[in-house]
Amino acid sequence: MKTSADKVIIGIISTFLIICFLNQLRNLPGGFFFSGLFYAIIILIIVLISILILAFILKFIFKKADYLKRVLISCIIILSFSIYKLYSPTLKIIVPKNYSGEVNLTLSNLNHNELNIDKNGIGYITKWTFEKTYTKPKVYDSDGKNLEKHLLSYDNNKFWGKSIGTGNTIKSLNFEIAKDTLQNKRTYQSNWLQNVDMKKVYLENPKKGPDNILDVKIK
């Protein structure tokens, strides 16, 4: 294969990865006092610097490759790693008909996600899903109605609320479904912790009880 053909193929792959990466940056959540845009800019700068550094290192490995080719190869390597690290699944969630209020996807010990939400607004997700998810989900009721216009995010910087705590804290990703499109702020406080199925809950040390100060019962 000719060198020019190599560059075309590598260039096409690099362009595809750049588009995927930039699309991911658009969906990054914020945190603390910083917006998602701030984090996106920081990550973009780090990725660009990493590409340039790797292109320099590749000079000693691919001695006959010109600068453009080394940059394109570096793009493929760095962007592939970045896309993998930033990947978030877009969850499809089904709630009961006419349901409104808080939805809690509980960190579980299961090897699959249970996204058909029960009457208490509770579903169960794997550790991988809990750690990776930040994009806005697709939410439907049991009749197939799209509830996108009723979804209320955690704050202006990110969609999901996320529990924090020790290894035996019952954790969840959460958001709220408004009663109607006129509601624009989260107001509902559920008693989901009293209704969670403890047989499915992930605890770092299962021999101990949950750290939450609640009357949590095992069903």
TrEMBL record:
Membrane-spanning residues: 7-25, 37-58, 70-87
Key words, A-Z: Membrane, Transmembrane, Transmembrane helix
Protein name: Uncharacterized protein
